[in-house]
User: Fold this.
Amino acid sequence: MASSDRSDVGVILAAGGRGRRFGRKLPKQFLLLGGKTVLEWSLEKFSRIRLVREVVVVVPEEFAGRAGRIVRRAGLPKVRAIVTGGAERQESVGNGLQVMGRECRIVLVHDAARPLVSPEVIRRVIAGARRYGAAVAAVRVSDTVKLEGRRGFSTETLQRELLWAAQTPQGFRRALLERAHEEARSEGARGTDEASLVERLGVPVRIIEASAKNLKITRGEDLLLARWLIGSRV
Assistant:
């Protein structure tokens, strides 16, 4: 079997947030979007990718039972485990990595709150991780970006042509991601995402151009936009 055909991809679906910015008691990953929960949308997207061998879901401890019921109702056999998240995203992803089967040599990390990710982007991130060791879905920055200096004044305009806004999925060769987590943990370092932990090792991360439609549901207006996109079949 060719390497590009191997089902050796594991997915860590990060659903550990409690949605404080969203302003509701129920975390955003459990809200309804087009008749299904946000979490279910994300789970189905990855479960349908043939290269994906298994999925590990990371949720807050008090919502593990709810996540389990969603998985059982949806009939998603690729879900290997539902684990409890940590105090921060980095710890949550580390918890998911610990229970992933050793057959998974490529690991994707995806925010459950990005339910509209396309199969094409998932496959391209997998291919990028396999070829380069690390890959991140991202979109070009369209606005002019200012660097804030002292007392809230702009001191520099950054070169927009070189700027990208990172999304997920982010994909890595497993050994590289494990090393990045281990070194960050031993040195007490914190990264904003998995790609930043890998960058700390001096390893470049391949950029995979994605789409603004791969939005992250963070506030109420994001959920409304996602509902509109689904309803319009965009």
Residues 1 and 13 are 27 Å apart (CA to CA). The chain is about 35% helix and 25% strand.
